Amino acid sequence: MNLHFNSVSLGYGNKVVIKNFSAKLNAGSLVAIMGDNGAGKSTLLKTIAGLIKPLKGKITNPKENRIAYLAQQCNIDQTFPIDVKTLVKTGLWPFCGLWKSQRSYYSKIQDALEMVGLTAVATRSLDTLSSGQLQRALFARIIIQDADLILLDEPFNSVDCKTQKDLLALIAHWQKQGRTVLTALHDPFIVQEYFPQMIQINKQNAFYGETTQFFSDTIHHAISPVISNSFRISALKYHLLFE
């Protein structure tokens, strides 16, 4: 689905985190969102999802298209007394409600669990899962929503390397299906390797473009005010360790 930002300002109450952002994202875009903590990454995703309203401007997307939103895992209560399969089923609530039969979706639920490698733990309670298993379950919940626009907020926090690799492959699969995926991230090396486009947020300014443009040495001086200090520190640590 196409997604248009028309001079959008975002924030809470009188606090503005992004000013006058305009961009056009084509259907099938795979976009990383980067910025320091508190820069506005989560606010941007919540606004696109319709959970909060823009302070100014307009975000345009086709109303008939479905949106799936995954919050940061720290917002998930693992003590809630449900099993993995039931958690995945909650992704159907927007379409079935709480009481409508979900039997027609049984095969989709099973397929989603298989895609994320959780068939064997489908009946286990959430409090028995590792962080990686919980995130796989939440990705299965997204799968059954069959959304045109997928919004992910720091989906790789506290997950193991195998889970991260598997979920990145699933995100790439969604893009090949023509779905638009926006993902808030803090790891610049994941962004460079897997995400062709990115939005960089810095000091209330948001910039959208090709990822290679943001990290190209040839335009270093042009984008240096945009790339955050946290990126520079992460990059330095990476080079010291691996080069």
From TrEMBL:
<dbReference type="InterPro" id="IPR017871">
    <property type="entry name" value="ABC_transporter-like_CS"/>
</dbReference>
<dbReference type="GO" id="GO:0005524">
    <property type="term" value="F:ATP binding"/>
</dbReference>
<protein>
    <recommendedName>
        <fullName>ABC transporter domain-containing protein</fullName>
    </recommendedName>
</protein>
<dbReference type="InterPro" id="IPR003439">
    <property type="entry name" value="ABC_transporter-like_ATP-bd"/>
</dbReference>
<dbReference type="GO" id="GO:0006829">
    <property type="term" value="P:zinc ion transport"/>
</dbReference>
<dbReference type="Pfam" id="PF00005">
    <property type="entry name" value="ABC_tran"/>
</dbReference>
<keyword id="KW-0813">Transport</keyword>
<keyword id="KW-0862">Zinc</keyword>
<dbReference type="GO" id="GO:0016887">
    <property type="term" value="F:ATP hydrolysis activity"/>
</dbReference>
<dbReference type="InterPro" id="IPR027417">
    <property type="entry name" value="P-loop_NTPase"/>
</dbReference>
<dbReference type="InterPro" id="IPR050153">
    <property type="entry name" value="Metal_Ion_Import_ABC"/>
</dbReference>
<keyword id="KW-0864">Zinc transport</keyword>
<keyword id="KW-0067">ATP-binding</keyword>
<comment type="similarity">
    <text>Belongs to the ABC transporter superfamily.</text>
</comment>
<keyword id="KW-0547">Nucleotide-binding</keyword>
<dbReference type="InterPro" id="IPR003593">
    <property type="entry name" value="AAA+_ATPase"/>
</dbReference>
<keyword id="KW-0406">Ion transport</keyword>
<feature type="domain" description="ABC transporter">
    <location>
        <begin position="3"/>
        <end position="228"/>
    </location>
</feature>
